[in-house]
Amino acid sequence: MAEMWVCSIGEIDYRSALDLQERLRVARQQERIPDTLLLLEHNPAVYTRGRRSDPNELTMGEAWYAQRGIEIIETKRGGKVTYHGPGQLVGYPIVRVDDVVAYVRLLEQTLVEALARIGVSARARPEDGPDYTGVWVENRKIASIGVHVAHGVTTHGFAINVQERALEPFSWVVACGLPEVSMTSIESEVALRAIGDGGAQNAIGAHHSPTLESFAAVAASSLAGRLGHEPREVTLDALEKCFVSPTSGSYSAGTLSVT
Predict the structure, then answer these.
(1) Is 85 helix (H, G, I), strand (E, B) or coil?
(2) Which H helix or E strand runs over 237?
(3) pLDDT tier at 243 (50, 70, 90 boundaries)?
(4) Is the dihedral of CA 16, 107, 81, 189 positive or negative?
(5) Is 205 exposed, middle or buried (0-12, 13-18, 19+ CB in 10 A)?
(6) Which helix (DSSP H) or strand (DSSP E) does residue 146 occupy?
(7) pTM for this one?
(8) Tens-digit pLDDT profile for residues 29-75
(9) Bridging pattern class, strands 182-183 and 46-49
(10) CA triple 171-179-78, angle to 5 deg
(11) Could you give the domains of the chain?
C-alpha cells in the first residue's frame, strides 16, 4: 500500500501555508514526494475569498475586519468566503486526482466518516447544489471544503470547526454565500448530545470534545483509507528537504525513504 505523508504543523499564518502548499504541489508534480496531507491551525485569523465570492459577502467592510485583526485574502480555490482561525482544524491534501468533483465528494465523506468515529452524525448535501458543498450536522454546517487543481495535483482542502471559539467570526460575513447558514463545531455538537443524553456517557466519553490534535489523527486516517494509502507522519523539516534534495526513483524525507 502506498504511503500518504502526514505533516502536523500546528499554528501557521495563511500566506506561509499557501506558499508551502505551492512548493509541495511542484514537488508532487515532479514525483519527489507521495500524496501528502498538511494539518494545521491558522493564526492570525483570516477570511478567504474563493473564485465564486461576491463582495457583498463581506457585510461589515474591510476596515471593520481589519480593526479586529482579520485580513481578507483572495484565493484560487473554489467556493465563496469563509473563515480560518484558532479553534479550527485545516487540512491541505497535496494529492494527485483525475476527477475534481469526485475528489470533493471524497473529502466530504472523509470528514463524515471521521466525525462518525467520534460519535458525531454528519452528512454531505450534494443533491442541494454547489453552495452546499461541505459537511453538515442536520442543517448546521461544521466543515467547509474548497480545492484548486493544477496539472493533476490539488491544493487547499477542508476546514472543520473543532472548538466553539471558531464560530463567531462566521456571523460577521455571509459565510459560504449562504445568508441563513448556521455554523457549528465538534465542541458544540458534543455539548448538545450531552444535553440530549441527560448526562449519560456517550461515544466520545465524559462529553469531552476531542482536541485539534486528536481529531487531526482521525481525519488523516480516514483520508488515507479513502485514497488507498497508509498514513505516515513526517516532520516539516523533513518535507523541506524534498525541495532541495533531488531524488532518483524514490521518495525521501529526512531519514525516511520509500521506493
Answers:
(1) coil
(2) helix 236-241
(3) confident
(4) negative
(5) exposed
(6) strand 140-150
(7) 0.89
(8) 999 999 999 999 999 999 998 877 777 888 898 899 999 999 999 88
(9) unpaired
(10) 90
(11) 3-253 (3.30.930.10)
Continuous segment of H or E residues that includes residue 224: helix 212-227
Q: Which three cell numbers stand for residue 93?
A: 491534501
Which listed residue (176, 204, 224, 253) is catalytic? Answer: 176
| Nearest-angstrom CA–CA distance, 196 and 202 | 10
Q: How far out from the chain centre does Cα 150 lie?
A: 18
Gap between the Cα atoms of 58 and 50, Å rounded: 13
Q: Are 33 and 253 in contact (CB under 8 A)?
A: yes
DSSP summary character for residue 164: G
Amino acid (1-letter code) at residue 101: V
Residue type, 206: A
Evaluate whether 117 touches 218 at the Cβ level (below 8 Å). yes
Tell me the residue type at 210.
Answer: P
Residue 7 annotated as catalytic: no
Q: Where are the alpha helices (DSSP H) in 68-125?
A: 100-117
CB half-sphere exposure, 96, CA atoms < 13 A? 13
Residue 96 DSSP symbol? B
Angle at 95 between CA 89 and CA 101, to 5 degrees: 85
Q: Are 105 and 46 in contact (CB under 8 A)?
A: no
H/E element, 3: strand 3-12
